C-alpha cells in the first residue's frame, strides 16, 4: 500500500496521579522523602501527600464510552510512498446493532496527495445505543500507473450504560400524579448533575419538587455541589397536574397513561458532557369505578364540637350512562353530619361533575377520619360507600387559641 491509515480517539486529558511516599522524621530516611516530593513537579505545592497532582496526562488507552456521550475520533491518511496518488476518498461509517451511520465530514474525493502529505478529518457522533459499535474506515485511491487501490480497517468498541433510572408513580385523589425518579451513577467516576428535568405530556403541567426557598432564593435540596459519586443514588420528585381544559373531563384524564419523559444532562472528568432522554414514561391508569368522590376543600384543624365545612366533588366516570344520585350521611362515634340525609342530587351526565358543600362536626379530639357518605344510583339501585375520605385534627377551642 502507498497510504498509511491511523485512527485515534479524541478524549479530554486527565489529572496526573502519583503515589506519595513519606515517613516520620525519626525513621532512617529522615526528611528525605518529604523533600523529594516537594521538588517533584507533579505534586501540588503545600499538599504533596495528595495523590492528585496539578499536571495533565494524555489518555493512555481507548477508555470507556457511555451512552449519551459524544464519540470523537481523529482520522489521518498519510502518503508514505515517493509517488503522487490521486482520487483519494476517505469514508468512515459507524456500524451498530441496528443501523449503519456515515460519519465522514465530506464525501468528495481529494484530487491528489503528494509524498509525506496527509489528509486529516475529525468525526463526532452522539452515542444513542448501548452494546457493540464498529468504526469502519475505508480508503480508495489511484496510483500513478492508473491502478485502483482499496483497503479498510475496523475498530470495535463497547458503549456502556452510565445511569440506572427507576421510576415510581403515585396517583393522588385530586388527579395529581407524583413521579419519583431514582437515578444511580453506575460508572467508576463521579458525575456533575447539570440538569434533571421532566418534560410532561400535552395534558399535564409539571412542578419540580427538588428545590427549597431560602431567603427568597431557590436552592437545590442536594446542596450547591450536585455531584453524584459512583454507585450513589439520588431521588428526584415531580408533581404533574392536569391542564384546566383536561381536568374537567373526568373520563379523559382517568385513562391517560403517558406522563412524559426525563431529560438528564451531566458532566464528567474535565467537563465532558453527556445527555440521556428516557422514552415516554407510562403509569397504570387508576380505577375509580363508576362514581368518584374527591375532596376539593377541607380544613386541617378544627375546634371540638364546632361545625366545619368541606367541599366534595362527585364525578360520573361512565362515558355512556346517566346517573340519578341520592346522598345519605351516616354518623360515626366521632364524626356527625349536619344536614338532611337521603336528599336527591339529581341527574349526573356521563363524564360530568358536581360540587357539593357539606357541614359536619366532631365530638372527639385527635386525628379523626371523615367517613360515612353513601351515594345511591336510583337507576341501577346500586349504592357506593365512601369511608376514610380524609382526616382532620380536632382540638379544643382553648388549645387552638
Automatic annotation (TrEMBL):
<dbReference type="InterPro" id="IPR055429">
    <property type="entry name" value="TRAPPC13_M"/>
</dbReference>
<dbReference type="Pfam" id="PF23643">
    <property type="entry name" value="TRAPPC13_C"/>
</dbReference>
<feature type="domain" description="Trafficking protein particle complex subunit 13 middle">
    <location>
        <begin position="163"/>
        <end position="286"/>
    </location>
</feature>
<dbReference type="GO" id="GO:1990072">
    <property type="term" value="C:TRAPPIII protein complex"/>
</dbReference>
<feature type="domain" description="Trafficking protein particle complex subunit 13 N-terminal">
    <location>
        <begin position="6"/>
        <end position="159"/>
    </location>
</feature>
<feature type="domain" description="Trafficking protein particle complex subunit 13 C-terminal">
    <location>
        <begin position="299"/>
        <end position="394"/>
    </location>
</feature>
<comment type="subunit">
    <text>Part of the multisubunit TRAPP (transport protein particle) complex.</text>
</comment>
<dbReference type="InterPro" id="IPR010378">
    <property type="entry name" value="TRAPPC13"/>
</dbReference>
<dbReference type="Pfam" id="PF06159">
    <property type="entry name" value="TRAPPC13_N"/>
</dbReference>
<protein>
    <recommendedName>
        <fullName>Trafficking protein particle complex subunit 13</fullName>
    </recommendedName>
</protein>
<dbReference type="InterPro" id="IPR055427">
    <property type="entry name" value="TRAPPC13_N"/>
</dbReference>
<dbReference type="Pfam" id="PF23647">
    <property type="entry name" value="TRAPPC13_M"/>
</dbReference>
<comment type="similarity">
    <text>Belongs to the TRAPPC13 family.</text>
</comment>
<dbReference type="InterPro" id="IPR055428">
    <property type="entry name" value="TRAPPC13_C"/>
</dbReference>
Amino acid at each position: 500500500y502507498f497510504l498509511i491509515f491511523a485512527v485515534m480517539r479524541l478524549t479530554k486529558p486527565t489529572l496526573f496521579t502519583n503515589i506519595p511516599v513519606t515517613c516520620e522524621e525519626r525513621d532512617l530516611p529522615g526528611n528525605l522523602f518529604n523533600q523529594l516530593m516537594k521538588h517533584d513537579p507533579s505534586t501540588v505545592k503545600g499538599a504533596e501527600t495528595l495523590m492528585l497532582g496539578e499536571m495533565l496526562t494524555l489518555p493512555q488507552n481507548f477508555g470507556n464510552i457511555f451512552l449519551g456521550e459524544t464519540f470523537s475520533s481523529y482520522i489521518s491518511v498519510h502518503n508514505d510512498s515517493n509517488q503522487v496518488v490521486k482520487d483519494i476518498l476517505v469514508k468512515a461509517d459507524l456500524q451498530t446493532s441496528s443501523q449503519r451511520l456515515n460519519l465522514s465530514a465530506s464525501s468528495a474525493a481529494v484530487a491528489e496527495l503528494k509524498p509525506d502529505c496527509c489528509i486529516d478529518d475529525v468525526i463526532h457522533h452522539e452515542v444513542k445505543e448501548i452494546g457493540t459499535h464498529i468504526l469502519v474506515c475505508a480508503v480508495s485511491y489511484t496510483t500513478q500507473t492508473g491502478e485502483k487501490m482499496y483497503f479498510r480497517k475496523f475498530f470495535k468498541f463497547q458503549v456502556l450504560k452510565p445511569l440506572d433510572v427507576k421510576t415510581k408513580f403515585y396517583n393522588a385523589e385530586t388527579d395529581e400524579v407524583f413521579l419519583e425518579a431514582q437515578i444511580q451513577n453506575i460508572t467508576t467516576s463521579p458525575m456533575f448533575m447539570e440538569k434533571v428535568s421532566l418534560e410532561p405530556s400535552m395534558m399535564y403541567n409539571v412542578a419540580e419538587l427538588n428545590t427549597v426557598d431560602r431567603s427568597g432564593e431557590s436552592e437545590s435540596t442536594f446542596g450547591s455541589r450536585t455531584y453524584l459519586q459512583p454507585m450513589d443514588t439520588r431521588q428526584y420528585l415531580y408533581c404533574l397536574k392536569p391542564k384546566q381544559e383536561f381536568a374537567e373531563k373526568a373520563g379523559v384524564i382517568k385513562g391517560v397513561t403517558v406522563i412524559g419523559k426525563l431529560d438528564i444532562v451531566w458532566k464528567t472528568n474535565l467537563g465532558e458532557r453527556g445527555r440521556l432522554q428516557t422514552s415516554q414514561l407510562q403509569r397504570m391508569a387508576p380505577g375509580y369505578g363508576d362514581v368518584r368522590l374527591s375532596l376539593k376543600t377541607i380544613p386541617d384543624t378544627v375546634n371540638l364540637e364546632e361545625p366545619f365545612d368541606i367541599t366534595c366533588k362527585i364525578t360520573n366516570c361512565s362515558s355512556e350512562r346517566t346517573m340519578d344520585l341520592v346522598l345519605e350521611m351516616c354518623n360515626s362515634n366521632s364524626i356527625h353530619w349536619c344536614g338532611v340525609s337521603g336528599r336527591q342530587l339529581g341527574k349526573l351526565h356521563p363524564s360530568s361533575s358536581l360540587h357539593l358543600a357539606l357541614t359536619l362536626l366532631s365530638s372527639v379530639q385527635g386525628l379523626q377520619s371523615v367517613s360515612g357518605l353513601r351515594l345511591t344510583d336510583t337507576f341501577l339501585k346500586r349504592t357506593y360507600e365512601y369511608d376514610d375520605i380524609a382526616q382532620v385534627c380536632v382540638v379544643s377551642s382553648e388549645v387552638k387559641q
